[in-house]
Amino acid sequence: MMEKRVILFQGDSITDGARGRTDDPNHILGHSYAYIVGARLSFVWAEQQPLIINRGISGDRASDLYARWNEDAISLNPDIISILVGVNDAWRSMNGEASGITDRYERAYRHILEETKQVLPEAQLVLCEPFILNTGAPSQNWQAWSERITAYRHTVRELAGQFGAIFVPLQAAFDEACTRADASYWLWDGVHPTAAGHELIARKWLETVLDKEAAGE
Question: Are the C-beta atoms of 157 and 151 separated by less than 8 Å?
């Protein structure tokens, strides 16, 4: 029998999905991939009544996650911690904002993982690959955006290996999806997913993290 689990989703607006800030179970998970994954896990593991938590916050960078990691991660004592972050680190730099003058992505991300491994050594880490498509904001400076996100993708993959985390590849999945429909069909502004884009992330997450039975396949 599978033990009850606490699954935490962390990140920026892509994870936030306009999630509720109250205890209303009809809105608490928002409408992102976290809701889709959470719905599937809640159904499959109903007998164990898993607790699904979404603590994504719109606009967050890796350093913002680290600043709130005690209250929004460690204190929740999760069994699985899923992280998707990076686009705002890139966006601040691309826009020349003061908060993006130095690139703290790898440094802050590493701090998050080091602290988590020290305090919650049994927690399973799931690191989701950052992604963009050549439409909307990224298309206006595609080379710079592509280079930055590619570097972040490599960083996350390397960190996953170093910290024994599960790496969820997403960029190739979005690139392949563009053979079926235009980029904006999946990421309406090149960054934020549509409903179809969130479904893509959820399917890849379930496929990568769980076995086929739990993924409903």
Answer: no
